[in-house]
Amino acid sequence: MPNWTRFRSGEDPDPRFTLANERTYLAWIRTATALVASGLGLEAFGGDLLAPAVRVALAALLLVAGGVIAVLAFVHWISAERALRAGRALPVPVMAPVVAVILVICAIVLSVEVMNS
Question: Please, what's the largest Cα pairwise distance for the chain?
Fold first, then answer.
């Protein structure tokens, strides 16, 4: 079995912290998956609910957001693991504000569309 020593600096943190970091990463991956699924679902089943341009724009926004969140989650996971090993403060997650902005945009656009129909 190969020795997978990806983090060569610092000391091994308490396994509970490493596992909590991994659970956080997986939670963000689930969020990214939900955004991608929402974008696909909106485009596939949105039909006549929204104007075609609005539907495509929202679907694209959700798909891109899902990809961005997946990448940011991985970067945050690595950064947090390095901080744990070095005994530094954990990095501030930037995913929560990104998801909040995406959801606010979607909610506003959908609210306007519902009121106009």
Answer: 62
CA distance 7 to 39: 35
Q: What is the DSSP letter of 50?
A: S
For 46-100, write each residue's pLDDT tens digit.
Answer: 888 888 999 999 999 999 999 999 999 999 999 999 999 999 999 998 889 999 9
Instruction: Give the other-Cβ count within 10 Å of 4's Cβ.
Output: 6
- CA Rg value for the chain: 19
Q: What are phi and psi of 37, to 5 degrees?
A: -65, -35
3-class DSSP state for residue 78? helix
Report, as an integer, the average pLDDT of 106-113.
92
The answer to whether 12 and 85 are in contact (CB under 8 A) is: yes
Q: What is the DSSP secondary structure assignment for residue 14, as one 8-state letter?
A: P
Q: Which of 19, 61, 18, 17 is nearest to 39 (CA)?
A: 61
The owner of tokens 């909590």 is: 20
CB atoms within 10 A of CB 49: 13
**Residue whose C-alpha is closest to residue 58's, from 112, 116, 117:** 112
